[in-house]
Structures are given as structure tokens and as C-alpha cells.
Amino acid sequence: WPLRPGTAKCVWRHPPGDEIYRKGNISFFEVDGAKNKAYCQNLCLLAKLFLDHKTLYFDVEPFLFYVMTDADAEGCHIVGYFSKEKNSFLNYNVSCILTLPPYQRQGYGRMLIDFSYLLSKVEGKSGSPEKPLSDLGLISYRSYWKSVVLDYLRRFQGKGISIKDLSQETAISAYDIVSTLQSLGMLKYWKGRHLVLRNYVNTETPESSSSKVKKVRHDRTLDPECLRWKPYTMPNR
């Protein structure tokens, strides 16, 4: 790494902020853009190297940054991060998301997405990423939505399934669930109502089979019991 010589002067071995999740070598740190402005600005500048649409550099105070790290004897190495507005009127649970290139295609990107929805579940609301997404981000989210929705439908034993139920259970916004079901050909509009066609759930396709192999190969899952976090509350003025 070309940055390694410069680290000799740095005593920090983990991001600033609060460690809110740890399981094994994986940790998540919550960093307040207002309290750690320079660090968060540098994160944004780092993301700009890999995200063409990245526009936020310096106005970081209204955002919280969730940094995922992989620890070893030398400290916590940044795997990726996502930022989130402290108060999003549109219920965006992610403003910007990045997995650093050395960690891509290893399941870490999915963990970042999954963590954003885990926080939404604790908040008791559904969420959606801010658009536009990068090409890789869009592919990652569509894959995530598909796997989560299909997994829920496979486990569901009731007679009726509503978009609202799906959204409440998964914390995925109703709009994203509808678009996912439509892309799978599982949604039918009949007599003024959207009906979920469950026959597709048991249908095996080459695409679904390969995705299962990939999921087993990079089995990186979150444990909600390891989360130590309370939702951010805006201070009284």
C-alpha cells in the first residue's frame, strides 16, 4: 500500500465515533459528520475516486456515517461505508454507499446494505437508498431486494400477502418491493388491488441457482443481537 509510510505518525487504529456492532473481525462505527467533520469529508473525497455521481464533499454535518471495518493485529481496516441523513423527510436510509475495490465481490457490499435495513427496522420504518445509484450499486440493491423478498415469501405460511406486510417485515420501501415483484413477474393488478403471485417462489432458474452458490461462497451475514444502537434524535433548539 502506498499509504503505509504515512501511517507511522497516526496513532488511531479504528475510525472515530461509536462502535455499534461487532461480531468476529467485523465492526460498524457510527460517525457524526458534525463531530468528526474532517474525517467524514475525507471519506467523501475517497468515495469520489470510485463514484462518478458523488457530489457531497464538505457539507457533512447533516449526515451520519456508518463505517464497516475488518480487524486484525494492526487495527480496524475500512471495508466500506454508507452515509445517512440525520433527518430524511423522504425516508432515505442511505445517501451514499461504497465498498472499497479490494473488498468488492466478497459479500461485504450486501452486508452494508443489510446493515442499513437493520437500522431501519430498529427505527420502526421502511427505507430506500437515495437515487441515483451507481451501476454497481443498482445491481447490488436489486440483487438484495430480490433475495430478501423471495426468502420472505418462501417462509410465509399465511393465505394473503400484502405489500404493506412485506415492507413492514423487511424494512424495504413499498415502492422498491413493487418494482422488485414486477421485475420478477410476480405482481398482478386485479380489481383495483395488487396481488402477489407466489407460484414463482418455487420455480428454480439458472440465475437463482448460481446466486445461491455465490451466497454460500461468501456467507457474510449480520447478527442483530450484536447491534448496540439507538436511533439518532435531533437536538432541541
Automatic annotation (TrEMBL):
<dbReference type="GO" id="GO:0036409">
    <property type="term" value="C:histone H3-K14 acetyltransferase complex"/>
</dbReference>
<keyword id="KW-0007">Acetylation</keyword>
<comment type="similarity">
    <text>Belongs to the MYST (SAS/MOZ) family.</text>
</comment>
<keyword id="KW-0863">Zinc-finger</keyword>
<dbReference type="GO" id="GO:0008270">
    <property type="term" value="F:zinc ion binding"/>
</dbReference>
<feature type="domain" description="MYST-type HAT">
    <location>
        <begin position="1"/>
        <end position="231"/>
    </location>
</feature>
<dbReference type="GO" id="GO:0010484">
    <property type="term" value="F:histone H3 acetyltransferase activity"/>
</dbReference>
<keyword id="KW-0156">Chromatin regulator</keyword>
<feature type="active site" description="Proton donor/acceptor">
    <location>
        <position position="130"/>
    </location>
</feature>
<dbReference type="GO" id="GO:0003712">
    <property type="term" value="F:transcription coregulator activity"/>
</dbReference>
<dbReference type="Pfam" id="PF01853">
    <property type="entry name" value="MOZ_SAS"/>
</dbReference>
<keyword id="KW-0862">Zinc</keyword>
<dbReference type="InterPro" id="IPR016181">
    <property type="entry name" value="Acyl_CoA_acyltransferase"/>
</dbReference>
<dbReference type="InterPro" id="IPR050603">
    <property type="entry name" value="MYST_HAT"/>
</dbReference>
<dbReference type="GO" id="GO:0006357">
    <property type="term" value="P:regulation of transcription by RNA polymerase II"/>
</dbReference>
<protein>
    <recommendedName>
        <fullName>Histone acetyltransferase</fullName>
        <ecNumber>2.3.1.48</ecNumber>
    </recommendedName>
</protein>
<dbReference type="GO" id="GO:0010485">
    <property type="term" value="F:histone H4 acetyltransferase activity"/>
</dbReference>
<dbReference type="InterPro" id="IPR036388">
    <property type="entry name" value="WH-like_DNA-bd_sf"/>
</dbReference>
<keyword id="KW-0479">Metal-binding</keyword>
<dbReference type="InterPro" id="IPR002717">
    <property type="entry name" value="HAT_MYST-type"/>
</dbReference>
<keyword id="KW-0539">Nucleus</keyword>
<dbReference type="GO" id="GO:0003682">
    <property type="term" value="F:chromatin binding"/>
</dbReference>
<keyword id="KW-0808">Transferase</keyword>
